[in-house]
Amino acid sequence: MRHAPWSPSPSNSKPEPAQLLPRLQNHTSNTSRRPTTSLHDLGYAPHTSEIRIPPKAASIPGSDGAPAANEDWKKTLNLPAKDSRQQTEDVTNTKGLEFEDFALKRDLLMGIFEAGFEKPSPIQEEAIPVALTGRDILARAKNGTGKTAAFVIPVLERINPKVSKIQCLILVPTRELAMQTSQVCKTLGKHLGVNVMVTTGGTGLRDDIIRLQDPVHIVVGTPGRILDLAGKNVADLSECPMFIMDEADKLLSIEFTPVIEQLLQFHPRDRQVMLFSATFPMSVKDFSDKNMTSPYEINLMDELTLRGITQYYAFVEEKQKVHCLNTLFSKLQINQSIIFCNSTNRVELLAKKITELGYSCFYSHAKMQQHARNRVFHDFRNGVCRNLVCSDLLTRGIDIQAVNVVINFDFPKNAETYLHRIGRSGRYGHLGLAINLINWEDRFNLYNIERDLGTEIQPIPASIDKSLYVYENPDSIPRPISNFQKGQLPAAQVQQQQQLQQPQQMQQAGLPQQGNWQSQQNQNGQHNGNPHFSGGRGRGRGRGGYRGRGGQGAGGRGRGPPRDAQT
Fold first, then answer.
1. Could you please report the per-residue DSSP string of 205-243?
2. Which domains does the chain have, with CATH numbers?
3. What whole-number distance in Å separates Cα of residue 373 and Cα of residue 364?
4. How far is CA 111 from CA 169, 187, 198, 339, 467, in A?
5. pLDDT (tens digit, 9 = 90+) per residue, 483-539?
């Protein structure tokens, strides 16, 4: 029997700051299950009966608790270049609060501003003041609207660096998301002296045991590994007052639920539990009823899909998909793209085809070794490569601002997977494009996803308006510059191309060749429509299926420099 998804009741109108705290008064005055003794031991203040949001003119507390006399400290900050791209109402429909209005420590504010944050998003406005009171939170908001900072900021505010205890546990479903979340904690809290540890499966348990001998305040990781550490009495969670689950719907699926239930037993009864996700199935409601105390419900999902993402589909026979993908590469102006397949085998096969077409490409899936996955994720995130082929491993929470195109090479089978996939583009209110390659067998899934999400996926036009997904000034996109010199392949790509050249993989190919794909390439040598990555084409083919190129026609038996490395 299929259960309908459950979600908190959406708020028809957002409360004003002055009205927010009285709504918590009844709860905070009757939280008999939440004694404040252990929180006092950790240096926390007891629960208050209201959230006091100071006016903007109020002084900002310094790192030592003393008020700041003025705002001269802001002038000393090393601020990044301002992101001038237009944003949608997904992140701009706020109540007008500033980060200073939450009375955060100055050292924390310094980290927030130096990370490029300017004003809180709607989910941050709703969640931060409530989380600071210690109340349980059940928050639902769209992908890419700032959910991670919505719980990391109050966590960093409440951490006492002088206490050498684990004070917060953040659970995530994937290793890549664990690395990303831990980096957010380190970036925002770099002036606080907070020690953050990330631990996931696929790495040596001994290294984690050694790291836990030193003070650790925040642990970010996947459930299985943390349960191992807690079960061996290596990770002491007995005085850990904050328990957070990001992508809670995935963590409360059948595969994770038993582990989550066991982990909760290691925490004190007066713990604070916070759940964040874009989708909430009935399993979340069951968990909330059993393990949370009158949670404060936040639901900002007036609609499921991001407003900045334009969605198209194209009916394509299976044997023509690679040919269609090649045409898309030649016609679209791609900054970075993520291409999804439904199986790990097809991920590697498609990555090989893309390199044969002459485009630089990474791939990632769950069967790869952890160090290889880490390297691919790091290099792609830093702009080393333009295209990434992956399985649903990277559908959860991965935030890469430069991705403006998502292509579903294999169409997903359910609305939840589709929603998380297309959410990799259009991050934080920016523009994005989602293109779905549909075959005859996918037509029913297309109809069901449109119905479940309440959206309409349009047929792809002959020409896609660039204003839907491309910004006039590419320099405004916050993408790190590659550190690789001209003619040098990144380590992740070298290793993957060595693996892809194995002949037995061609025999397993489920993606047939499409004749002379090269005729579909841009004649002017531009890469994915971007003139910054131009260069002549070499006639030879590299051993790894990577076509050599360069102004002098590099190629032959060796590999030419990737398009992304040319300037």
1. HHHHHHHTTS--SEEEE-HHHHHHHHHTT-S--TT--EE
2. 17-64+89-299 (3.40.50.300), 309-522 (3.40.50.300)
3. 6
4. 21, 6, 20, 33, 33
5. 333 344 445 555 555 555 444 443 444 444 333 333 333 333 334 444 333 333 333
